[in-house]
């Protein structure tokens, strides 16, 4: 008796072979440099604009414009202002940049000071916790130790079970 699989493949064998051949014989579309591929046609998500990078470009742009103006047309006026007036109008941008740089340096220094203070604080905390553990009136099972956020020895000892390596019902031999 024929199985269902044999029946199906026997009945549709020629069709399956044709599909198999067609799958391997389909010519692939050649993409020329001017043809856009499907990946290029799909919309790409908008990239985030790095504002910090743009700010650096503005500073470079300002420097380039100012230096070029000073070298090539120092006495000319553009847009109703001369070079000195332009420098006065754009000075606030430069002073704010300098101010921001100072703030960032102060912030980095503050973070370093905080980390140094935190290291000392950790040492003091450890000293106090160890003193509570060593104190006969409090110790590792005290409410004070628990209130400090630690797990007492009694809590640690309760409820912990370990699986035995040997099965429970061992036959007696």
Overall pLDDT score: 79
Bulk shape: flat
What share of residues is helical?
55-70%
- Secondary-structure element string: HHHHHHH
Q: Work out the oligomeric state of the chains in this entry.
A: single chain
Discrete helix count: 7
Poorly predicted runs are none
Percent strand: under 5%
Instruction: Give the terminus-to-terminus CA distance.
Output: 55 Å
Helices, strands, pairings?
Blueprint: H1 4-11, H2 13-25, H3 38-41, H4 51-72, H5 83-134, H6 143-147, H7 153-157
Report on the architecture of this protein.
It is a single chain. This protein has a domain at 52-156. Helix content is 63%, strand content 0%. It has helices at residues 4-11, 13-25, 38-41, 51-72, 83-134, 143-147, 153-157. Helix 4 packs antiparallel against helix 5 (83-134). The longest helix has 52 residues, at 83-134. The radius of gyration is 39 Å and the shape is flat. The two termini are 55 Å apart.
Give descriptors for this structure:
173 residues; mainly alpha; flat
Q: Could you give a short description of this structure?
A:
With 173 residues, the protein is an all-alpha fold. The chain has helices at 4-11, 13-25, 38-41, 51-72, 83-134, 143-147, 153-157.
């Amino acid at each position: 008796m024929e199985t269902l699989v044999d029946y199906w493949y026997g009945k549709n064998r020629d069709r399956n072979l044709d599909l198999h051949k067609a799958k391997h014989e389909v010519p692939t579309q050649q993409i020329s440099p001017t043809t856009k591929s499907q990946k290029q046609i799909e919309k790409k998500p908008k990239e985030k604009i790095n504002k910090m990078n743009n700010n650096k470009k503005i500073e470079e742009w300002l420097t380039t414009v100012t230096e070029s103006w000073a070298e090539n047309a120092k006495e000319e006026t553009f847009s109703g202002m001369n070079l000195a007036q332009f420098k006065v109008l754009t000075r606030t941008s430069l002073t704010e940049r300098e101010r921001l740089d100072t703030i960032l340096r102060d912030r980095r220094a503050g973070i370093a000071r905080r980390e140094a203070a935190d290291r000392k604080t950790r040492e003091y905390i450890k000293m106090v916790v160890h003193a509570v553990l060593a104190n006969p009136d409090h110790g590792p099972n005290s409410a004070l130790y628990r209130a400090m956020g630690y797990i007492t020895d009694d809590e640690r000892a309760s409820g912990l079970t370990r699986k035995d390596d040997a099965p429970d019902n061992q036959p007696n031999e």
